[in-house]
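Ticket #4471: structure export looks truncated?
Reporter: QA, pipeline team
Priority: medium

Steps to reproduce: submit the single chain below to the structure queue and open the exported record.
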Amino acid sequence: GTAVAATKIIVNDQQPAYVAPAGWTTLTSGTTTSGNSKEITTTHLTSSYQLYRLTFDIRGALNIEDICYIQQYSNSAWQTSNYRWNRVRNGTLHEGTTETGIYLGYPGKRWMGTLTFAEPDATDTATFYELYGCCNNDNGGSNGNGGIKEQLVVTGCGGINDNTATTGLRFKLNGGSNAFTRGWYILEGLAIS
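Actual output as written to the record:
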């Protein structure tokens, strides 16, 4: 005979509720609705948490394709060069030693993903980032009604080539004429005792 084991049968709307992983604390959240630069934080990256997670879904103007970066604030200024970032985009490795930020994808009009990093307050090593995300290069679609034309899967890791503590993050579009049109983000911290 065949043995069948079941611990619970889910019927109709009795789906289990989502439970967030234990320990993560929401530090800040917001929306991206205008401009080509959006500050995420300059106050929440401290020694109070060892791990950080930034989850986002942001969009740019329909008629402009662009590169979107995350840039860090350190040395009392937004850092716009000297990022070392390796990424895999749709299965192909791209090594970038002179990026202007943490690369979220190109060409794009919509970017979503999760950026994880640890100990941004450290001064004996650079802040190291890990990205899992995707971008769509035409959020207007072939018919202009919000469809999906081309999707790119982007994973990567790296950071800025500097051992200065990171005290802030922002989203930055590369093109000067593009602007964010909508989106959201949430930054969380995890304290490890």
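Status: closed, not a bug. The export was complete when the record was re-opened. Leaving a note from the reviewer for reference: DSSP finds no helices and 13 strands in the chain.
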